[in-house]
Amino acid sequence: MQKKYSVLIVEDHTLLRQGLIAMISSDPTLEVVGEADNGRDAIRQAAALKPDVVLMDINMPVMNGSEALTEIKHRDSNIKVIMLTAHNAEEYIRDSIKAGANGYVLKQATRDELIMGIHKVLNGKTYLTPDVADKLFNKYLSGSAATEQSAWEQISKREREVLKLVAEGNTNKVIANQMCVSIKTVEKHRSNLMKKLDLHNSAALTAYAIEKGIITTR
Predict the structure, then answer these.
(1) Mean pLDDT, to the nearest integer, of 113-131?
(2) pTM listed for this prediction
(3) Which of 72, 119, 158, 166 has the most neighbouring CB atoms within 10 Å?
(4) Domain 151-211 belongs to what topology?
(5) Taking the domain 5-142, which CATH number applies?
(6) How far apart are CA 100 and CA 122, in angstroms?
(7) For the chain, percent helix, then strand, then coil, each to nearest 5?
(8) Hey, where are the domains in the chain?
(9) Residues 107-133, buried b or exposed e (16+ Cβ, 10 A)?
């Protein structure tokens, strides 16, 4: 009997998730064993199901894919994780690779490319969508792979969490309650964000969050 590899699909859009399940299931060597619509559930499912590979979006509610990737890899480095996302900005690619992603596939990829990427990762290789690979290669050739950190890279995990909550329109009090910290701590995070990003009000922070895909306007 042909071996089947188990796949966990993490995507917050129901229609897209169902489409991915059908697409993956069309390959006789792959079996979808679970699904989740946020990063926190992805961590739970990965721990319980021990899938061979996790196919995961970056932008999701509750906990985003980047944070979930870090935690999944921390708990079990043998689980392969492929980020499936619409984001082709260099900082997302770098962050995912640094966090241990085994693959990075853009959502405009074809079914054949996605399946090929999954199998390459299962065979111990890294897979990057050609457009992503070209972007990184051209950046390297141009010599602009700067050693100096970008403003985005200087933002801590907690600051990114505050940025998301600010952009969603939450007050400092609400943010403090959600993060289980004091209002003064939230104010400090906001101050650090504005200083690092050279932004001076909530509207500017919100616009930045939308640009980076931390929140969406859909």
Answers:
(1) 90
(2) 0.68
(3) 72
(4) Arc Repressor Mutant, subunit A (1.10.10)
(5) 3.40.50.2300
(6) 14
(7) 55, 15, 35
(8) 5-142, 151-211
(9) eebeeeebbebbbbbbeeeebbbeebe
